[in-house]
Design a protein that fits this description.
This protein is an all-alpha fold. Helix content is about 70%, strand content about 0%. The protein has helices spanning about 5-30, 35-40, 45-50, 55-70, 85-95, 100-110, 125-145, 155-170, 170-180, 185-200.
Length: about 200
């Protein structure tokens, strides 16, 4: 790779890193490219040159953060035998790196009430491909008799991921519902989460 290509890659990465913060703080509508450029120390014309538009920059940010999660919390066919532990690892990741969940929540807020259907989904093909890999792992675990097979595999994946992040997404609601049991912290929540997902996804008699 020549110096110019390396420099371009490095500049793009600086812009993406700055954009993760901007979009997670302000959402796709409230984000401003001039603030992204300023934080990255890069001329804002570069954003349009490299990404094309503010919306495409948001798509690139979502794809990058999803790729990081997929690399940190992979789901192999063997690991899919225990979706409870997978949910625990997803929970750990989102607790440690809250930006990605915030980006997903902002994306969800773009859906207009009453319409129910999102507009064009950012980085749809790339993100669907990641989920397809996870679903294929769940299918293999179902065929091996490790998971219940009376529901579609996508629902099992959804259950594990949704339970892992929902109380991080709505902490006030979780606090009001669960209260604060003596000495209960994230580790106890993780244990209960894993047990519940394990129980909900195990083969039916």
């Amino acid at each position: 790779m020549g110096h110019m290509a390396w420099d371009t890659q490095r500049t793009k990465q600086r812009l993406l890193d700055a954009a993760v913060h901007e979009y997670s703080e302000h959402g796709p509508l409230g984000a401003r490219v001039d603030r992204v450029a300023e934080r990255a120390g890069v001329n804002k014309e570069r954003i349009y040159q490299y990404f094309g538009s503010k919306q495409k920059l948001f798509a690139a940010v979502l794809e990058q953060e999803m790729t990081k999660l997929a690399a940190a919390v992979p789901l192999t066919a063997e690991q899919a035998h225990d979706l409870g532990e997978f949910a625990g690892r997803v929970y750990d990741y989102h607790r440690t790196y809250p930006h990605y969940l915030r980006l997903l929540l902002w994306e969800g807020l773009e859906i207009r009430p009453g319409r129910g259907e999102p507009g064009p989904v950012a980085a749809a093909a790339e993100r669907a491909a990641h989920y397809a890999d996870d679903i294929a792992a769940v299918v293999r675990a179902q065929r091996a008799g490790a998971l219940r097979d009376d529901v579609r595999p996508g629902y099992l994946l959804y259950l594990a991921r949704a339970l892992a992040v929902w109380w991080l997404a709505v902490p006030s609601t979780a606090a009001l519902m669960l209260g604060q049991a003596a000495g209960e912290g994230p580790l106890e929540r993780r244990r209960v989460l894993a047990d519940l997902v394990r129980d909900a996804t195990r083969p039916r008699p």
